[in-house]
Amino acid sequence: MTTVFLVLLCLAVAGREMYLSFDKRLPRAQDELTRLRKQVNDLAGRQDALERDRPEPVPDAVPAAPPEPAGLSEGLADRLADRIARVEERLETVAARVDGLDLDRAAQRSLARSLDAVEQDVGELHQEMLERLARQEGVVSGLLLSEEGEAEALLGEVYERCAAEYGLRVRVRDRYAARGVGGSAFLGTSYRLSGRRPDALAEELFTFARAMYDPQDPSALAALLTELGQLHGGGVTRIGPFTAVRTANALVCGLLPDSPSRPIPTEPWELAAQLRELPEDLQCDLSWLRADA
Q1: For FRET with 273, which of 5, 97, 215, 252 sits at 20 to 30 Å CA-CA?
Q2: Quick one: pLDDT at residue 117?
Q3: Quick one: which of 1, 36, 41 has its CA closest to 15?
Q4: pLDDT at position 29
Q5: Is 178 exposed, middle or buried (0-12, 13-18, 19+ CB in 10 A)?
Q6: Mean pLDDT for the chain?
Q7: How far is CA 7 from CA 13, 33, 47, in A?
Q8: How far apart are the first and last CA of the chain?
Q9: Where is the composition biased (Pro residues) (predicted)?
Q10: Element (H or E) spanning 268, and its range?
């Protein structure tokens, strides 16, 4: 059990060090980091004496990132995103090992609090990174769904290739699930992407979609729209305001910005209805791309 506490503390230290790499002027985090380091050192010194039969070793904690300037450069953002992902993987490993330990109730609560604290640090890092990227180079929300997860892996590959082709980098991926009116499940991924401003990007995507005439076009956006049209069930893809929707008998796309008074639905038929309400110059019909067209 001591080993588990040591790993959790190491993860917490790694998380705080990454947080400090964003901004050196974080005295509260610096104080906490010093305290956590002392706990790690004390616990490591007592570990050999306290335990002979240790659990199977957990991978080493993520190395701390060296201090960086306050500005969030592209290279730093990439390194931090990679470290955050690795911390999350370690959290999953530790959580799985904790589930297999025979711990009393107090120890379980203590471990749960430690895991929650590290998860909160990781969440704060994600948010801080996205906020700084938004100020410097733009952050775009994305969504990719298909009915019952149809062709999910292929769609995800083409979606991310399309994002890269238009100068975007994937910063956050989250599993996403929605329930349709008829009870169908729509499964996929929500994205946070950086590198472009949403409005200009959406205009560029929409302009291409309106001019598209060849399903064999080698561009990634053409491939994404074609794969969406090949689905047997419903599907949705969004990159900022640019939205394309596959329903049972149509494939439509358009510019559908978020509105506080009218939230964007994830149900394809509702989305298609909203797209068809847009002015003609903000929507287009790509139903000719459907497999059954």
Answers
A1: 215
A2: 72
A3: 36
A4: 46
A5: middle
A6: 75
A7: 10, 15, 12
A8: 61
A9: 58-69
A10: helix 268-276
Tokens of 29: 């985090």
Of 5-14, 42-51, 78-87, the one with minimum mean pLDDT is 42-51
The DSSP code for 289 is G
Q: Is 262 helix (H, G, I), strand (E, B) or coil?
A: strand
Query: Judging by DSSP bridges, how do beta strands 242-246 and 251-255 pair with one another?
Result: antiparallel
Residue with the larger pLDDT of the pair 50 and 272: 272
Q: What is the CATH number of domain 138-289?
A: 3.30.70.260
Q: Which amino acid is at 17?
A: E
Do you know the residue count of the chain?
293
> What is the pLDDT confidence band of residue 234, given thresholds at 50, 70 and 90?
very high
Please report, as a single letter, which amino acid is at residue 272.
A
The kind and range of the H/E element at 140 are strand 139-147
Q: Which two tokens stand for residue 109?
A: 């609560």
C-alpha–C-alpha distance, residues 192 and 214, integer Å: 29
Would you report the helix, strand and coil content of the chain in percent, each value rounded to 5?
55, 15, 30
Can you tell me the distance from the alpha carbon of 199 to that of 189, in angstroms, rounded to the nearest whole number? 21
The residue type found at 203 is E
Mean pLDDT of 250-264: 82
pTM (two decimals): 0.64
Distance separating alpha carbons of residues 178 and 53, to the nearest angstrom: 46
d(CA 33, CA 200): 41
Beta bridge partners of 131: none
∠ Cα 207 212 216 (to 5°):
140
Structure confidence at residue 78 (pLDDT): 64
d(CA 65, CA 95): 24
Domain spans in the chain, listed from the N-terminal domain onward:
104-135, 138-289
Convert the pLDDT of each residue in 166-182 to its tens digit: 999 998 899 999 887 67
H helix or E strand, kind and range, residue 90: helix 74-99
